[in-house]
């Protein structure tokens, strides 16, 4: 019995010692690692930190590179001078002179013609050769086709026949327009009736107009009848007659 009491006493003492050791170890741990139990509060979030670091009142940062400005539209080639069709005018004295003083200038402006090549000469016709040759060859219309083609026209305007007098133009006009169409299959061929500045317009001028119309329309060309606005003008067409011709040409070709 005495032995059992001694063993129990030792057990109690051992438990006490173990308890003290545990308390001491716990105290040491708390002393060394004090505050470990409480999780440290974060100093600041990344977002708030970046905002606070910006200067007060500063605006949003500019992008590193601004977008390139939209390119300016290129000029419209069609709006520049000389971009319209190339036009050859071949006729008699009615079409000779400064373009601004003849029907040619007004018609060109109104119809949007580009380069104008004027091969007109006094007295040129379907049968007659010019009295002078400052422009183009000294030849009739049909013998001037090579010069017309050389200009590379998109449009050819033939305006004459008065100097041919009272002779039939049926065959000469038909032959001229057929040859011209063969050389310029894609060009617009236009013919204007012959006009006079005499006191009266002879009936054969009306006949000339009819045969010229037949010749040009036979090759898918266009005939323009401007009437006889120059009757009584004398040696040359007046400015009023030129303006009247220009208006008729513009109206009928528009």
Give the SSE layout:
Blueprint: H1 2-32, H2 46-53, E1 87-91, H3 103-111, E2 116-118, H4 145-150, E3 155-159, H5 170-183, E4 188-192, H6 203-217, E5 222-224, H7 239-253
Parallel strand pairs: 1-2, 1-3, 3-4, 4-5
Helix pairs in contact: 3-7, 5-6
Structural overview:
By secondary structure, the chain is α/β, with parallel strands linked by helices. The protein has a domain at 82-253: Rossmann fold (3-Layer(aba) Sandwich). Helix content is 39%, strand content 8%. The chain is built from seven helices and five strands. Helix 3 packs parallel to helix 7 (239-253). Residues 64-74 have a biased composition (Pro residues). Residues 39-63 have a biased composition (Low complexity). Residues 39-88 are annotated as: Disordered.
- For the largest sheet, list the strands in their spatial order: 2-1-3-4-5
Q: How large a portion of the residues is in β-strands, by DSSP E?
A: 5-15%
**CATH architecture of the domain at 82-253, please?**
3-Layer(aba) Sandwich
N-to-C series of helices and strands: HHEHEHEHEHEH
Q: What radius of gyration results from the CA coordinates?
A: 52 Å
Residue ranges: pLDDT <50 for 5 or more in a row?
1-7, 33-81
**Roughly what is the average pLDDT, rounded to an integer?**
80
Beta-strand segment tally? 5
Look at the structure and name the CATH superfamily of the domain at 82-253. SGNH hydrolase
Estimate the global geometry from the Cα principal axes.
Answer: elongated
Number of helices: 7
What's the helical proportion of residues?
Answer: 25-40%
For the largest beta-sheet, the strand count, sense and barrel status come to: 5 strands, parallel
Protein structure class: alpha/beta
Distance between the termini: 144 Å
State the CATH class of the domain at 82-253: Alpha Beta
- CATH third-level topology of the domain at 82-253: Rossmann fold
Biased composition (Pro residues): 64-74
Region (Disordered): 39-88
Biased composition (Low complexity): 39-63
InterPro entries: SGNH_hydro_sf
